[in-house]
Amino acid sequence: MNEKIFRTDTKALVGSVIIGIVMLIMMQVTGRIDAILDPTLLLLNGTCWAFFTGLIVLMYRQPAGIIAGVVEAVVAMATGYSPLGFFFLFANVIGSIVYSLISSRFSMEKLSHHIIAMLGTAVTGNLCVMVGLIYVFHLDWKIALLSSSITAFVGTIVAGILTKSIYGSLQKSALLQ
Amino acid sequence: MGLSKLDPRTKLAWYVLMIYFSLISGTVVQLCLVLLAGIMASLILTGSLKQYKVVILILLFLGLQILVVQLIFCREGVLIYQWGILKIYSEALPLAITGLLKASIIVFASMQFFTSASPQEFTLMLMKFKIPYRFAMLVGLSVRFLPLMKAEYISIIDSQRTRGLRMESAWDNLKGIFPTFLPFLYRSVRRATETALAMELRGYGRTKTRTFTSNIALKPYDTVLISAMLVVIIISLTSKVLPLI
């Protein structure tokens, strides 16, 4: 089993659930702010999603990333906080797997490594959300593509920087040992 | 027959059926029929729709969001109003209604499914799908921790407010994300470590299998219902795919 991708100890499994709930709460907070500031782009929400997807994979690897994503999507569906909740399920799972695959090839010590891994995650995740925008919101595919591209671009840059900085501080704090 | 008597797998099949029809239905009439079928099923099996009262407010908010999106971006139909770059087309409202109906079915079906069974039933259902118990039991853990984590986040917000952090407007909330989120994240990581240690000390994951106080088994009516729902999906898929061949 590739240790850079998989980790199945109890700490990783429990951590995935708890950080998945943290992700859910933060997604709800940022979603509400987005609904007032930018209801069509959801930049904060997209950035928050990309950041947590990356952070959980770095902290607990797989299947923790997938579990956290499923927890977030399922509770989002059950509480009805977003009509795209069903598509979040695919976005979270695929985005997390992509982040794992990319990050396992890098040392993840440079900002460029984080940005590259985040780019793959943001693009694949936002593609799933784009399908949701087309099917549920009935948006024209060009508009949906534009909206998803902007969210993916902002998410890649901001979440990449945030992931590096916060993961670094978590490592220094010895909370992950 | 009450909802609690049905096997979680039957409820899962019903959920898949509802999601499938919400995605493939294109007209308002079709979507209304699907939503009505979901509401009727809930009414027959539970005898009440009280638990969905909270959804109405959420859906009104969602409807408003979808309407804004359609008013800004819809380019179908006839141009009925223009103000600068903002153009409103005649199809914006019908598309917003269709979008709202689809969203309503997805939200309603999700609530129906996820509130219809206990965490232990979901755990047992996952184990029937051959998922190891170490993973399946995380359902119960997430249900247990959700209110605790929410309370913890609120307590961190309150602590930061007493230190002078303003959380009144949307802008204040935006500025308040980092001072509230970082302590929340660090406390959550510490809590995860402590919980995992406590669980391991109680024997979690020591053996490959474990026993449960209850079990689930498909009854004849569950088998009939699941088969019927599968047949409906297959017929619908065939009718969609065949004209393309």
Automatic annotation (TrEMBL), chain A:
The chain crosses the membrane at residues 12-29, 41-60, 80-102, 114-137, 143-162. It comes from the Bacteria. Keywords: Membrane, Transmembrane, Transmembrane helix. This is Uncharacterized protein.
Automatic annotation (TrEMBL), chain B:
Its main location: membrane. The chain crosses the membrane at residues 12-45, 52-73, 93-114, 135-157, 224-242. It comes from the Bacteria. Pfam families: CbiQ (PF02361). Keywords: Membrane, Transmembrane, Transmembrane helix. InterPro entries: ABC/ECF_trnsptr_transmembrane. It is a multi-pass membrane protein. This is Energy-coupling factor transporter transmembrane protein EcfT. It comes from Desulfosporosinus nitroreducens.
